[in-house]
Write a structure and sequence with these properties.
This protein has four helices and 47 strands. The chain is mostly beta strands. β39 and β40 form a beta hairpin. The longest helix has 19 residues. The radius of gyration is 28 Å and the shape is globular.
Length: about 750
């Protein structure tokens, strides 16, 4: 229904605009200082409505009806003249607007709008206060209190409040999470955000482009250390870059470690072939220890007509200990008590090479070629012991290779339209060996190819942008010589309508498929206890999805808000299935039924005391239905969060609270009950140094969440107690040292996981 409405709306819009465009005239010009220097990123306003933003040369252009108007420009630190234009009858090509720098401007005075909604993007200008209390890109986005965006500096993530991922760019070039985490907030001039991204980023929840001051030469040194005490962890990051002219070099290194004590108590009822067996499990102790090491060297060369980025990465993950011990009591067909223990360890190493090249041709053509190659070496070892039963031992090792490539070409037409082509391919090769209680070898090859043709257009008179991208995808798998092929149509569509400079409506939608988990695409049977086993499924197919996201955003002075409606359908849903045979409970993955999701999300923020005191929050109402041959389950729920922040004299104070809530996972499937989350943060900023101390969930050493479900063969009721989600007291120190000569800005999580197809029984 939404797709039909959107299609009709866009068609009517096109017809209306084509009928009206003949009445419009073009206006173009330049914004200069009184010393004849171009002013970039200035907001050009006609009758107090924003119609354009200047580029690096101070140029602007727009279309308007032939009637009298006045024009001026706005930018922090400048004052603009006001020019009247009386009843123009033809195009204006040389309009000059002069601005005078105001060096005496107080920090709290803002001469330009902090947020502008345009047809193609929202433009956010951080205030001096927001920059002062932020050290990096993630903190700046968080401190700007953008309602529809969630940012976490600790996790190095930015997402839409509905959970969709956001692609981050720095000056138009794709950025890894660590690059945003080490981006000096004081260097950020503005942030451009596309809520309905077209081009090569179709399917993303948004594209966030950090526009920064550039260096003629010089760079930035960034170091941070985050140390947890109650929950023991460490996160250390170092970064340095140097730029001279078009060439830039950067080096990144990080190390993370943690020690978690996660205890689980469960009450289970198993419907086995010979009768009912109940199991009560109470934890004795548990320990999860992990280490992650990451390094990257990156070289970039960027000019007006091209950019080249080459990076070499090395990731090492090591879990030396993942162990639990429990007391288990059995009743029914088995009457006994026993002590069980599970221990596993794993390590992985993966180097990766990334290359990305962009060429701008004749000012109206865009060509992007990208490719990557990686190698992975993975090892897994696991043992399960229970008194009275034989030990279960699983050993495995894997070598894998991954290759990907992409091509994007766009031709921009004079009617603000663009015709484009996107072609992408990914190939993964896995070679696995298992031994212990079960010996096996497996070779798994997977491939994914998609080709899309896209049309996108900006309808300037209506402040409307829309795109449609359609094509086909091809997925193939080869397991020990058994080959499967999947052909599926792929469609992306969406648009953004700027009602005025502070209100917009956006729509994103798609029909596509997602590939299965590769570790289950096999016929292996791995025991996990004396009566349980994990089974692969070589017939596992793809999941098809139909998704729509409709959002309204508005800024009213100090009040910002966002309202969104999400509608999703997952066809041939991939979910867990449990069944019994010969008194063994088997777990596998299957395609079964459909999953329907409806969500309404409201987000808002409000600034008080000259924005020194800020209140923000969001609420989510969700309505889920999983319907298939195995399961027919519904879930309705609501949850929310609040945040209060105060900034004064170099100090910042922040308190957060998330309500308890119940939710539902479509893939497990499982009901989850989560307790409330809360925390406080105190930070001190001075020049390039920030010291931060925080406490989360400080009343509880462990955070207890519950999960439950009746699978037919297994009625599960489990309470998990997480040390990582419980009491966390930490101190973080960050230091940034910029150096060199800056120029005006242009107009324009590292992956710590490693691929693996190893099937793990526990």
């Amino acid at each position: 229904m939404l797709r039909t409405i959107a299609t009709i709306f866009l068609a009517l819009t096109v017809l209306f605009v084509n009928a009206q465009e003949i009445d419009l005239i073009s206006v173009s010009g330049k914004v200069l200082t009184d010393s004849q220097e171009p002013v970039s990123d200035a907001q050009v306003m006609v009758n107090d409505s924003i119609v354009s933003v200047t580029d690096t040369s101070g140029l602007f252009s727009f279309r308007i009806r032939p009637k009298s108007f006045y024009i001026k420009a706005a930018k922090n630190g400048y004052e603009s003249e006001r020019i009247s234009v009386m009843n123009p009858t033809r195009a204006i090509t040389d309009l000059l607007v002069t601005m005078i720098r105001n060096n005496e401007l107080d920090e709290v005075v803002v001469t330009a709008y902090p947020q502008i909604e345009t047809a193609t993007k929202a433009i956010w200008y951080p205030s001096k206060q927001e920059q002062r209390y932020s050290t990096n890109g993630y903190q700046l986005v968080d401190n700007m209190n953008i309602p529809d965006v969630v940012s976490s500096s600790h996790n190095q993530t930015i997402s839409i409040v509905n959970g969709q991922s956001v692609q981050c760019l720095i000056n138009g070039i794709e950025a890894q999470p660590d690059e945003v985490a080490t981006l000096s907030a004081k260097d950020i001039v503005r942030i451009d955000f596309q809520r309905a991204p077209g081009g090569k980023y179709v399917g993303k929840g948004g594209v966030m482009n950090f526009i920064t001051h550039q260096y003629d030469y010089g760079g930035n040194v960034y170091v941070s250390a985050d140390q947890g005490f109650a929950y023991q962890y460490g996160d250390y990051l170092g970064f340095a870059n140097y730029k001279k002219g078009a060439l830039s070099l950067s080096v990144t290194g990080s190390f993370k470690w943690n020690r978690e004590h996660n205890l689980s108590a469960s009450d289970n009822i198993y419907n086995l072939n010979s009768g009912i067996m109940t199991q009560t499990v109470r934890p004795i102790n548990a320990l999860l220890s992990s280490r992650n090491t990451y390094g990257r060297f990156k070289i970039s060369h960027a000019k007006n007509n091209h950019s080249l980025n080459v990076s070499l990465e090395l990731t090492a993950n090591n879990i030396p200990t993942d162990s639990t011990s429990s007391l288990a009591s059995y009743c029914g067909i088995l009457e006994q008590q026993s002590i069980s223990s599970r221990h596993s360890s794993s390590n992985a190493l993966s180097p990766k090479l990334d290359i990305d090249y962009t060429l701008y041709i004749n000012g109206n053509q865009y060509l992007n070629i990208s490719g990557s190659a990686s190698y992975g070496r993975n090892r897994y070892s696991g043992m399960f012991c229970e008194t009275g039963f034989d030990d279960i031992i699983t050993e495995s090792k894997e070598h894998n290779q991954s290759y990907s490539g992409g091509l994007a070409y766009y031709y921009y037409l004079k009617n603000n339209g663009a015709l484009g082509l996107n072609v992408n391919h990914t190939s993964n090769i896995y070679s696995d060996k298992y031994w212990g209680n079960y010996d096996s070898r497996q070779k798994l090859n997977t491939g994914y190819t998609s080709a899309l043709i896209q049309w996108q257009q900006t309808l300037s008179p209506l402040n409307l942008f829309y795109y449609v991208s359609a094509g086909y995808s091809y997925t193939n798998t080869d397991i020990n010589g058994k080959r499967d092929n999947y052909w599926n149509p792929v469609i992306y569509y969406g648009g953004n309508y700027a009602i005025n400079h502070n209100q917009s409506i956006s729509l994103n939608g798609n029909y596509l498929h997602t590939i299965f988990s590769p570790e289950y695409k096999n016929d292996l049977v791995l025991p996990s206890s004396f009566f349980q086993a994990t089974v692969g499924n070589p017939d596992l197919g793809v999941l098809k999805s139909f998704q729509n996201y409709l959002t309204y955003n508005a800024t009213f002075n100090k009040f910002r808000m966002s309202v969104s409606y999400d509608f999703m359908v997952y066809l041939d849903n991939i979910t867990n299935k449990y069944y019994t045979k010969d008194n063994i409970l088997y777990k596998t993955l299957i395609n079964d039924g459909n999953f329907y999701s409806n969500r309404i999300i409201f987000s808002a923020s409000y600034g008080m005391l000259n924005n020194s005191l800020r209140l923000s929050g969001h609420s989510i109402a969700e309505f889920f239905h999983l319907k298939g041959e195995e399961y027919d389950r519904k879930h309705n729920g609501i949850r929310g969060s609040l945040s209060l922040a105060y900034y004064t004299k170099g100090w910042s104070f922040k308190a957060t609270y998330t309500t308890p809530y119940k939710t539902f996972s479509m893939s497990d499937p499982t009901y989850f009950k989560n307790k409330c989350q809360y925390g406080v943060v105190i930070a001190w900023n001075r020049n390039n140094l920030q010291i931060e101390a925080g406490a989360e969930n400080f009343a509880d050493k462990y955070r207890a969440n519950s999960r439950y479900f009746d699978y037919g063969s297994w009625n599960m009721n489990t309470v998990d107690r997480f040390s990582s989600k419980g009491r966390n007291i930490y101190v973080s120190v960050t230091y940034t040292l910029p150096y060199g000569k800056k120029t005006d800005s242009p107009d324009a999580s590292y992956q710590s996981t490693i691929n693996s197809a190893i099937l793990k029984p526990f």
